[in-house]
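Q: Convert this sequence to C-alpha cells.
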Amino acid sequence: MVKTIMQVGFIASLIAAINVEAQLSTEAQIEEEPRLPYEVIVNPSLSISDLNKLIVQVEDDFFDKYNELNLDNDYDVICYVYVPTMSHIRKRVCEPWFLIEARGDNASEVASGFAVKNAGASRAQTVLLTPNAMRLEKETNFVVLQSKLEEFTRTDLEFRSIGNALGELKDRLKSKK
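A:
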C-alpha cells in the first residue's frame, strides 16, 4: 500500500513537472511568436446587431489600410450609406472610386442628352446603365483592383490580419443567421 501511494505521488509529481515544462514552453512560444498587428476579440454571446456593427468597424479599418497602401486614387475604396430608390431602408456599400466616378459620368451624359433633346436638337441617345452593366463596363478595372488586393494581402502583414479578422467575423455572422 505504501508502495502504491509512493507510485501515485511519483506519477503526480511527474505530471506536474510535465505541465510546468509545457507551460514554460508555451510561454516561450508566445514570446517568440509576434502577435498579429490586428486582432478582434469577440464575445460568444454577441448579438447579430452588435456583430454587424463590429463588421462595419473592421471593414472601415480594412479599406482605410488598403487606401493607405494603394497609390492610385482611382482604385481607392469608399464606404458610404445611402437609401436605394423605392425604399426607406438605409444601405451601406463600399465601392471603388472608378465605379463611383463612372456612374456619375453616365448620369451626367444621360442628363445632358435629355437637355439636348428638350432643346430640339437631335443627338445619339445615351442610356442610364444598370449596376450590372456598369460592372461589366468596368471589368478590367475590377481585375486590377483584385490584383492590388491580392498583392497587399501577400506583402503586408497588417492588411492580411485585418482581412482575416473580417473574414472570421463574416463567417460568424453567417453561422448566426
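The first helix runs from residue 2 to 32.
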